[in-house]
Amino acid sequence: MLLAIAVIMTSCYTITFSVGRGARTGQEIRAKNHYLIGGLVPLQVADPAQMAGGAANYDVTITHTFVDGLLAGITGGIYSPTTITVTK
Questions:
Q1: Domain containing 75: what range?
Q2: Which of 31, 54, 74, 78 is the most exposed place for a label (fewest CB within 10 A)?
Q3: pTM for the model
Q4: 17-35 pLDDT, tens per residue?
């Protein structure tokens, strides 16, 4: 019963922001951010500026996808990944 409530109460989220004038070419680079304990302890976090490869204008989207939520649910929130997308 508790597992069903935990799955129902979770949701996906998306955070998007632009650097400079935003994306120009539409080229996307994806990576994973890895966290422990519901996102409190970062293990490996991607650097959007490095992913953009020196571009001055790009968009960054950080999302908690269904698969990310599924992994967090299976581990009881101990492991909580997110997906980051940089669009040049």
A1: 2-87
A2: 54
A3: 0.78
A4: 999 998 888 899 999 999 9
